[in-house]
Amino acid sequence: MTRVPFVGCHRPLPFRISIPVEFFSMAAEAHMKSPQTQLGNTPQSLQNYPVPPPPPPPLISKNLELSRALTASSKSALFSLSREDVLFEDEWLIAVNKPQGIYCESILSSVHNLLNADQGEQVKLQELHLSNRLDRDTSGVTVITKSHKVAAKLVKAFTDHMVKKTYLAFCIGTAPKWENIIIRSGHGRSRHGAWRVYAFSDVGRTLPGGSFIRDMETLFEVLSVNGKGCFPASSGSERHGEKLIVVEEKSEITCDTDKTEVLVRAHPRSGRTHQIRLHCQYLGIPIRGDVKYEGVCEWKDTIYEGHELHAESLSFEHPVTGQSVLIQAPLPLWASQALA
C-alpha cells in the first residue's frame, strides 16, 4: 500500500482524504514496469560485480559450524592456560600454544590470569593485545603483547609483511602433482557474506557489500602423501623454482575423485581471513574437518570436530630489542603421525 506523506503536519487533519484503490494499482504497475525497477529486480543488477570461481560452501556446513561454535563457546568459558603452554616470554611479549577449538578471546583473558597469578604482576587486561588472531579450530603460535606501544609496532610488522609464518595442514583430496607451488588470487566476501577466492585480475574491484577484492598469495610445499614423507620436512628457507598458479577461473581440480591424505606446509605471504583454507580448497586438497570449505568431516570411521590446521612458527624482528625472534609450537598428534 502506498502512503501519502504529509510534510510539516504534526497533528491529524480534521478530514479524511479518499484515494481510489485503482490509483494505487496503476501507480504500482507503472513503477514495476519502469526500466530502473526492472533492472533492480533481476540478476542483471549484479552483472557488474566480480564472480568468485570456487563453489559456495556446502549447505551441510551451516549446521555443523553452529554445533562446533556452541561446543567451542562452552570449552572456551572453562579454558585456562598453564606454564607448559608458554612458548616464549619477555618483558614485552608472551607467546602461547593455542589449542584447537578455543576462541582467541579466551586465550587473551587466560594469559591475563596466568600473568597475574604466577608472577604476581598486576597486568591490566586492556594492555594485552593479540598480535595474530587464529581461527577457532586452528592451533599453534599465538603472540600477545603486554603494552599498547609494543602492540602498535608488532601490528605494523604484520601489516607490512615483515613477519614470516608457517602452517601445517592435513588435507584430503586429489594427490598433488607438484612438490611446491605458489597460488596467487583475489580475496573478498561474496554477496552472501562468505569469504571466497576471486580471480587475481579482479583485485581492486568493488563487491556487493561495498568492500574491495584484495590480493592474497601462499606458497605450499608437500611434506607427505599417504603417510610417506617424500620431501624434506624442515621449516627452513622457501625453495626456488616453484610452480605458479594465478587464479583467473574455476579450478579444474575436483575433490570427487580418489581421495589422498596430504600433509602440506603453507607459507602465507599475505594475511587474509581463511587464506590457507581457501587456497587448499582451490587446489583440490581441502583440509580434513574443514566442512566450510569442502573438507571431509568423517574419514576412516573417525569424525573430526574441527579442521586440522596448525600455526607452526612465527619469525620477526623484536619490536623493542631489534633481535631476531623465532617461535615454534610443538607438532599436534596428526602432524607427528603423518611425518613419522
UniProtKB/TrEMBL annotation:
SUPFAM superfamilies: Pseudouridine synthase. CDD domains: PseudoU_synth_RluA_like. Residues 34-48 have a biased composition (Polar residues). Pfam families: PseudoU_synth_2. Residues 93-281 form the Pseudouridine synthase RsuA/RluA-like domain. InterPro entries: PsdUridine_synth_cat_dom_sf, PsdUridine_synth_RsuA/RluA, RluA_PseudoU_synthase. One of its GO terms (molecular function) is pseudouridine synthase activity. One of its GO terms (biological process) is enzyme-directed rRNA pseudouridine synthesis. Residues 34-58 are annotated as: Disordered. PANTHER family: MITOCHONDRIAL RNA PSEUDOURIDINE SYNTHASE, RNA PSEUDOURIDINE SYNTHASE 1. This is RNA pseudouridine synthase 1.
